[in-house]
Amino acid sequence: MNVLVVGGTGTIGKPVVEALRAAGHTVQTAERSGGDLRVDMRDPESIRSMLAQAGRLDAIVSCAGSGAWKPLEQLTDEDFETSLRYKLMGQVNLARFGTDSLNDGGSVTLTSGVLAHSPMPGSAAISLVNAGLEGFARAAALDLPRGIRINVVSPPWVSETLQAMGQDPSGGQPAAEVARAYVDAVTGAHNGQVLDSRTYS
């Protein structure tokens, strides 16, 4: 398969790329800086340009996107706008525009996160975005043409991220295990599903 991974050098994206290549797939990566292609997920025209450069694809995977982390009373209009434009609409637009680049029976895999269902203090903006992505994928699966599938991977806290934050990494899931859910989303038959990466441990 010819696979495009957006955010392919990140904590989750890098092992996803490694796992896909190890399985024999051809992988292009897209980043804001670096990677095979350049993309700013906040800019719809940048997404369109990146897809045009990528050529025909069998799968599109997004491991990109972040959001504001603050107590609700401290979240500004800009914090919500940035979170929505980047992680939510960036991935939604990748799915919308990417359909034309996908071969029949291709797939789109997006990334939400555990905070959609298990929120924490300070996670209002990110929980909103993650839950929105999951609802979008379930509905979009009913409309996509030509046998194209769409799914969302929902990772927990990743061990490497916890370690970088100075916390106990044993409370998270190693990124290499998280990557298994993305490979299954690309190569399996799931459609309109939210894949909990913890089940791939």
Q: Helical segment tally?
A: 6
Helix-and-strand structural type: alpha/beta
SSE arrangement, N to C: EHEEHEHEHEHHE
CATH class term: Alpha Beta
**CATH superfamily grouping:** NAD(P)-binding Rossmann-like Domain
Overall, the morphology is globular
Distance between the termini: 25 Å
Mean pLDDT: 95
Low-confidence stretches: none
Summarize the amount of helix as a percent range.
25-40%
Let me know the number of strands.
7
Compile the SSE list and pairings.
Elements: E1 2-6, H1 13-22, E2 26-31, E3 37-38, H2 44-54, E4 57-62, H3 77-98, E5 102-111, H4 124-140, E6 149-154, H5 159-164, H6 175-187, E7 194-196
Parallel strand pairs: 1-2, 1-4, 2-3, 4-5, 5-6, 6-7
Helix pairs in contact: 1-6, 2-3, 3-4
